[in-house]
Design brief:
The chain is mostly helical. It is built from 1 helix and no strands. The longest helix is centred in the middle third of the chain and has 27 residues.
């Protein structure tokens, strides 16, 4: 059992490349959206 198949990811195939890639894309995409939203809110007040 790999380390990726423990903790919150307790299902078979949690360490497959497709699941890891999808999770990474969702997390990085969310961070990018928050950064863009913060920049627009802070500097483009119109």
């Amino acid at each position: 059992m790999s380390d990726l198949n423990r903790g919150i990811m307790k299902f078979d195939g949690a360490d497959s490349p497709i699941v890891v890639t999808a999770s990474a894309v969702m997390i990085l995409g969310s961070i990018a959206v928050l950064i863009i939203w913060a920049m627009r809110s802070a500097y483009l007040l119109g």
